[in-house]
Amino acid sequence: MADGDTATQPEGSTNGAAPARGGNPFVPRGVGGDGVGLDPTAPRALHANPSVVGSSQPLAISAGTPSDAPPVLGAGSASVGSPRGKVRIGDRIFLALTRGASGFVVLLVSLVAIFLVVKSLPSILDDKVNFFTSSEWSTTAGNLRFGIAPLLYTTVAISVLAMILAVPTAIGIALFITHYAPKRVARPVAYAIDLLAAIPSIIYGIWGAAVLAPHLAGVQRALYHLGGFPLFKDRNVPTGSLFDGGVVLAIMILPIVTAISRDVFERTPRENIEAALALGSTKWEMIRMAVLPYGRGGVISGAMLGLGRALGETIAVFLILSKVSNFSPSIFSGGETFASKIANSASEFSNPESTGAFIAAGLVLFVLTFVVNAAARMIVNRRKDFT
Amino acid sequence: MTATLTAKPAPASHFAGPSGSRRFKNGLATVLVTAAFLVALIPLVWLLWTVISKGYHVVTSASWWTESQRGKTFESAGGGAWHAIVGTVEQVALCSIISVPIAILVGIYLVEYGRGAFAKVTTFTVDILTGIPSIVAALFIYALFISTFHGARAGWLVSLALVILMIPVIVRTTEEMLKLVPNELREASYALGVPKWKTIVKIVLPTAFTGIVTGVVLGIARVAGETAPLLILVGYSSNTNTDLFSNFQGSLPTLINDQFANLNHATGGTAYHLDANGNRVAGAVVNYAPDRMWGAALTLIAIILLLNVFARFIARFNKIAQ
Amino acid sequence: MAKSIEAKNLNVYYGKFLAVSNVNFTVAPNSVTAFIGPSGCGKSTVLRTINRMHEVIAGATVQGKVLLDGEDIYDDGIDPVAVRRTIGMVFQRPNPFPTMSIYDNVAAGLKLQSGRTRKADLDGVVEKSLRSANLWAEVKDRLSKPGAGLSGGQQQRLCIARAIAVQPDVLLMDEPCSALDPISTMAIEDLIRQLKKDYTIVIVTHNMQQAARISERTAFFNLSATGQPGELVEMGETPKMFTTPTDKRTEDYISGAFG
Q1: What's the pTM?
Q2: Which residues of A fall within a CB distance of 8 Å from C52?
Q3: What fold does the segment set B82-240+290-315 form as a domain?
Q4: Residue B311 half-sphere exposure, CB side, CA atoms within 13 Å?
């Protein structure tokens, strides 16, 4: 066939061991209309050998031989393309819209970070005590003395406590739903746990403060008698201790940890489960051999997401925790977290210096939750690489 | 199974069960797993029972749904939650009007167009948004509109803070739902010579519609109960204020919070309380705050659970999930 | 009006991976051409390059030419959307739009392409397309019912009706019967023989008997080893391909030695 282009053929062999690589001068074409560019270096010209054009080697038989090719019809009739050379206007507008919305979200997050920094920096620079280590908090204009040490401690302690209580329970519930309960029980149970997530945190707050905390006083007294070390040293807050807050937070993060654990346990490959059972293991051994190792990454990331939520929880902690004048590390003492401190002090946002101090606390909370969430996501993504 | 107890055991079965310790561990695990589930049900049942039993007689009075708390104190009877319901509905509605289109467009971008660096940046920022504590969102709005532009506290600022919390919820569901739409449908549409944007608008979105609506409803339910932005961005008012853009405004979460503050109010020795008209009535001092608090809590829970049930109901009609 | 297709020096890439190398063939108008070959040999890939459908997969690119009656569909400035209006496609699994009725499914292409079409015209096109797809008698009383409610074979005929409703010149079929039972398959094969009158048809099939039954010409694709690009080994008149192929590999494949 008449072929003006440099068609390429592999070198003489008949087995195609050296397949023809594109040596022709066409540029590779991007994905039309989808706005996705492609690496133009993709096709490597290996053995461009234009001398064997149209040879009758059996490798790539050109069907365009005169004997069986009908004549190409109606030269002028073909009119495939309508408006040429341009991406359609509708596609352009729509892409611009979706991209604009995404840009807005990116801008929004950047603004959050920028404003928190810009509005808190003057106050931090003006701070007469060490921002990270001091336990003072006085935001009188002109004499700023504030440090986040107790806030950081209380925030982390109450959240870790919540994790310690919630994570094992959540794993238990997730196993119950996925591997123990019969189907007709599992579904309502899963639904009930999801309901827990739908209840607003202020309701947990009033219930925890007014109903649950008085009942926990006895538990706290009993635990206090078990050991006298600082973490358990009784500070005699009647109700509203870190312990109370931790228990309520545990209930609040239970659904998210359960949901994610359930998800990964459900996805344990059938083959792994059957392999374990075929070895003669009991149900529990099967779970330890197949389900738990498979789900470990998911459970950890679920726990981290729960931790992130606990760290930032505001109103429930705000309602439950009693303020104390002297900081104590005991979990049976009261205190304030970043979030509850800020919520408590909305009335003190009277001047820029004072407000800046609270925004600084908010900034630390933002960074803290960001780090925890990023870690959770890293674990999720790494797990994805394995599956 | 008495046979196994005899001194001289019969020839061991080929199918001897697991050893005692293995069986014990297996049993223990079963007990613990079941216990975990029962333990988790306790707070759910307890909490719902508390709210319903203490709140139902408040919400069943007609005035609860029609009157505000104007002029009421913890000592005076009557009044309702109308001012709070108005505030919550208005704030959440404004938030939804802003969030829903943006979030759905972002979801579309990530699934239908998103490749390359900008898509990665967007995914990353949505991840950050997902984890932002509500108090931080509120502080940002405060820093932007009140500290910088010297605006006054008002309901619309709450809506803006809620936008930050709502967008990631809807983006995520939209993404998931669009990913569920089989590629074959897009291909079928392209093969008919339909441009990409029309394929998305006319084929992909309708297919994922119910799923996206479910996500929107869940997003609304998520922000309707948020309290932290309310504390910082708008003052609580016991009067009905329909204006989102000026003055304080009541809302269900802050109504609860306001009653909570009076929960253990020590009342003086004057042995009277106020009736619904504010007249002194002789007799024991009555604190109406707890009733109102649980009533408002029940109202809020009812609204949010109804939204959740509604979302699940819609999800049933999801064409792709079947 | 049916048109001819000619592929010249076609190389298809997925990213940097060369999936199909140096394919040349010609398809006459109003003919049925079958692409056969073992899985992974690139026959579907080549089919998708004929109406630029492969481009919807990220990273897929093409070198070479595909000429429709002499006009290169890959020419600069050619709108892939317009190409697909001219060259329709039917897929492996029936994929009616789940949110649409039978009527709307058939009308989808016209409605979505132009936006405005008169109802009476649309009615005519829908009926004509459904008749051409041998489906009219079965669905004429339930045009407003969802398309997803039909049986698999009916759904596939619905998809064919949908494809021909936009009056393409060429119809590409990617294993259109692989998800169907034998009876539905027969119905589709009958339909293909009829459609030949109006369209140029290229069909990918893994079923050699099917290729022998319905096609005039057959192209055999193969790949020499995993990781190597697929290639067009041989193309010729179907009877000849199945009796006296030129290439040893075609013979091996036809006789069941591999694949």
Answers
A1: 0.81
A2: 32
A3: MetI-like fold (1.10.3720)
A4: 23
